[in-house]
């Protein structure tokens, strides 16, 4: 199942919502969204600095991740970045594949 790192920062309105419902309320909302699309939440942490929240989630396919990303961004409550995570075996497989590539100017 594809795994993704999600890094997000709350907007002012999103932060107000977090203050109203607390971290456990947000965790419940995240779990509902992710499991509703057949995924699981591996880890969820709140942070401070550039990112307010960091998650590692599994989704059945990248389209499910894209659907969540679009919906969350459309809410205006969060700015998010989703990064696909690859296993060691997946990188080993990628390294074994032959790629026909010519660098520009070569």
Commentary on this structure:
The chain is of the alpha+beta class and 106 residues long. Helix content is 45%, strand content 27%. It has three helices and four strands, in the order βαββαβα. It has helices at 12-36, 62-75, 88-96, and strands spanning 3-10, 40-46, 53-58, 78-85. The longest helix is centred in the first third of the chain and has 25 residues, at 12-36.
Question: Which helices and strands, and how do they pair?
Answer:
Elements: E1 3-10, H1 12-36, E2 40-46, E3 53-58, H2 62-75, E4 78-85, H3 88-96
Overall pLDDT metric: 96
Give the SSE order as H and E letters: EHEEHEH
Based on CA atoms alone, the radius of gyration comes out at 17 Å
Beta strand count:
4
Morphology call: elongated
Which regions are unreliable across 5 or more consecutive residues at pLDDT < 50?
none
Tally of helical segments: 3
Beta-strand residue fraction: 25-35%
Class of secondary structure makeup: alpha+beta
Give the strand order, joined by hyphens, for the main sheet: 2-3-1-4
Largest sheet: 4 strands, antiparallel
Distance between the termini: 38 Å
- The helix content, as a percent range, equals 40-55%
Give keywords.
four-stranded antiparallel beta sheet, alpha+beta, 106 residues
Question: In a few lines, what is going on in this structure?
Answer:
The protein is of the alpha+beta class. The protein is 45% helix and 27% strand. It contains 3 helices and 4 strands, in the order E-H-E-E-H-E-H.
């Amino acid at each position: 199942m594809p795994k993704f790192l999600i890094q997000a920062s709350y907007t002012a309105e999103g932060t107000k919502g977090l203050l109203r419902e607390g971290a456990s309320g947000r965790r419940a909302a995240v779990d509902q969204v992710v499991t509703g699309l057949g995924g699981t939440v591996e880890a969820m942490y709140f942070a401070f600095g550039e990112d307010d929240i960091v998650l590692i989630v599994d989704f059945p396919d990248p389209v499910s991740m894209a659907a969540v990303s679009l919906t969350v961004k459309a809410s205006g409550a969060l700015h998010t970045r989703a990064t696909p995570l690859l296993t060691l075996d997946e990188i080993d497989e990628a390294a074994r594949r032959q790629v026909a590539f010519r660098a520009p100017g070569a």
